């Protein structure tokens, strides 16, 4: 394109956006360093601190902390008072970076990002050869980051909002029900439910043996005696008569989601429910061009689509399939009822019944 065709104002605006994004990408690693060193936690509720005071309370070197704080101030992630040369966290900033139980704690998501930078070349190769890239092939920071990113949302919504939105399920769980958590990963959702419903039994399944091993260790650590974990795929997990079968952010990662739900249809009791927790999405790309859609399309390119293409059938639903497409999958698998139970800005909570 000739230089004369460039609109200088538009160029300036677009470069501004790209530079802002580069700053976010550059600072993401510092957010994680702050998490590793306990800098965010030390600042939460501490009021204004100098770099020296923060260094003293966390046992790290003042020169490094001053530079780190400057980067956070320039990012708008901490407040800076030039007169007193102090830095502080607002309650909102603390919720996002210092409190790992807050529903908006985002550092886990940055660990996911970090893992994907390490997998870049291997996944670029899959663009060329068309092969898949399984969940198990990823840099392990993805597994822990996913758990850290999703757990706060499960703690905030699963028991209080999502299960009550399903048809008669909460009552069954209180009395004592049998639940499968398919594609459970590190078992964050399984553990949240097991703690809330001690009369019920929870069976976590995942094809990834390291994740199952990790889930077992966590269950043992927290004393979750009503949760057990087993290596199994969504198409061959054992047991039947389940009152509830859950898929948390994983149905779209599977190569054969129709086959998986057909297997579930044979395993769930006649009046049982299937809960699909999927990334929030509208029905089309045009409607998903927003900050949340942006994150999910990127994750879908690097994780979800390659994961599905790595498995039999290789449907490649993608993380932004949307309710309509997911409903088609459920109906093809033999479920006659399908509806949106509820939603959050990040999740669609869908229910299928026979
Ligand atoms: C994005 S992670 C979600 C993990 C967990 N449900 C959570 O919410 O934290 C997707 C999970 O699906 C699992 N998975 C993918 N395909 C699977 C299959 N065919 N059968 C069982 N698990 C599968 C992966 O191993 C991974 O643990």
Give your account of this protein's structure:
The chain is α/β, with parallel strands linked by helices and 354 residues long. The chain has two domains: 92 residues, Arc Repressor Mutant, subunit A, CATH 1.10.10.10; 247 residues, 3-Layer(aba) Sandwich (Rossmann fold). Helix content is 51%, strand content 16%. The chain has 14 helices and nine strands. The strands form two sheets. It has a seven-stranded mixed β-sheet with strand order 5-4-3-6-7-9-8, sandwiched between helices. Strands 1-2 form a two-stranded antiparallel ribbon. A hairpin with a 4-residue loop joins strand 1 and strand 2. The radius of gyration is 22 Å and the shape is globular. The structure holds S-adenosylmethionine (SAM). The site of S-adenosylmethionine has 22 residues, from helix 8 and helix 10.
Helical residue percent band: 40-55%
Report the biggest beta sheet as strand number plus sense, adding barrel if it closes: 7 strands, mixed
β-strand amount: 15-25%
Gap between N and C termini, in Å?
Answer: 57 Å
Structural class: alpha/beta
Q: What is the CATH topology descriptor of the largest domain?
A: Rossmann fold
Tell me the number of helical segments per DSSP (H or I, 4 or more residues long).
14
Strand order of the largest sheet: 5-4-3-6-7-9-8
Rg (C-alpha, Å): 22 Å
List the uncertain runs.
Answer: none
- Order of SSEs: HHHHEEHHHHHEHEHEEHEHHEE
**CATH top-level class of the largest domain:** Alpha Beta
Number of spatially distinct domains = 2
The named CATH superfamily of the largest domain: Vaccinia Virus protein VP39
Number of strands: 9
